[in-house]
Amino acid sequence: MPRGWWTWRNVCLDLGNVNILIADSGSTKCDWLAITESGHELKEFHTMGFNPYFHDADLVEREMKASSEAMSMASEVDKVFFYGAGSSSPELCEVIAEGLQRVFGSAVVHVGHDLDGAAFSTYTGQPAVTCILGTGSNSCMFDGKDVSEVVPALAYILGDEGSGSWFGKKLLASFLYGKLPKAIHADFEDQYGLDKMSITKRVYQEPNANVFLASFMTFLGRHKDNDFVQDWLDEGFKSFLDVHVACFDGAQDMPIHFVGSVAFHFQDALRKACSERGYQVGNIIKKPIDGLAQYHVQFVFPESS
Predict the structure, then answer these.
(1) For residue 287, is pLDDT > 60?
(2) What are 1-43's pLDDT values in tens digits?
(3) Could you tell me which of 146, 136, 91 has the C-alpha nearest to residue 114?
(4) Does residue 120 contact residue 295 with C-beta atoms inside 8 Å?
(5) Residue at 249 is within a domain
(6) Distance from CA of residue 297 to its chain's centroid?
(7) Structural contact between residues 99 and 58, judged by C-beta atoms closer than 8 angstroms
């Protein structure tokens, strides 16, 4: 089905030499880049990630106003392009848009899904499948005009195959079941000092369990050459490909792009899984913010001038 929920606020465009603020937000962190329409970079900064499933407009407003970088340019921003996890319907986009509008009062605020941002940031001029592998996971196809998805993202409880939260669940369950190799088990105990009660409380009773689960990817990265972890990586990435890439007709005949920290830091295992499934790996980038800026300068701003 077609994607691209574009929620706009203050829709009277000023097409002069304006300042643009572009954001790529996961559930953990949001990267911001201020540019001009000609592509000149002004400032880069970071905030917490905003997800309308977990955060409301008041929190967005409060966190942005706590950012000295954001407030230093708030009155000078003419357009905001925000692409974020969870912004998958007009109603959810509006939650984020409302909070941002309170901060950037004179700006045109556009809120879209992080899938749109991922697709735009990796676009090379030809149709491709673009995948997100970070705290969560998702996929879409972009033909240069429409962003589309076939299967939904089911988040960390029902889905998020191959994501940080997926691997985090595997790690914690294996730790509690006593199934980890002895060296990994001992290292986990030494670093975290967690037990069943503290883990289950954090997962089932406190907010942002997906972020907590994904936080253990750094630990897994230390042990990614262990055969036990290698088997997990192979299982997780192939499960992701079988659900979120195989669903697209012709996927084996087009590039498969990946964005996100999991894809970037574990790309050797990801490339191996793609090769064994017959997929051609395109770009693998950790953060899409730079690609997003380039896309808007090349494809969005010329269309509005």
Answers:
(1) yes
(2) 334 444 444 433 333 344 889 999 977 789 999 887 666 767 8
(3) 136
(4) yes
(5) no
(6) 21
(7) yes
Q: Residue 26 is part of a domain; what is its CATH number?
A: 3.30.420.40
Judge whether 174 and 180 are in contact, CB under 8 Å: yes
- Residue 76 counted as domain residue: yes
Question: Per-residue pLDDT for 184 more than 60?
Answer: yes
Average pLDDT over residues 207-233: 94
For 158-227, the DSSP string reads H--TTSHHHHHHHHHHHHHHT-S-HHHHHHHHHHH---HHHHHHHHHTSS-HHHHHHTTHHHHHHTTTSH
Domain count along the chain: 1
145 or 213: which carries more pLDDT confidence?
213
The pLDDT-based confidence of 301 (bands split at 50, 70, 90) is low
Q: What is the mean pLDDT of residues 239-251?
A: 96
Q: For residue 83, give Cα distances in angstroms to 95, 126, 145, 204, 266.
A: 13, 21, 17, 28, 24
Q: Which two tokens stand for residue 4?
A: 């691209």
Coil, helix or strand at residue 138: strand
> Does some domain include residue 127?
no
Q: What angle do CA 63, 67, 69 make, to 5 degrees?
A: 150
Closest C-alpha to 26, from 264, 200, 297: 264
Sheet with 77-84, strands from edge to edge, namely 7-9, 108-113, 77-84, 19-25, 29-36, 41-48
Domain that includes residue 101, residue range: 7-119+288-304
Confidence at residue 14, expressed as pLDDT on a 0 to 100 scale: 37
Phi, psi at 19, each rounded to 5°: -95, 135
Residues 303 and 144: their CA atoms lie apart, in Å, by 14
Residue 131 placed within a domain: no
User: Which two three-digit tokens encode residue 184?
Assistant: 């990994």
Select the more confidently predicted residue: 55 or 290: 55
- The one-character DSSP state at 33 is E
Q: In the 8-state DSSP scheme, what is residue 295? A: H
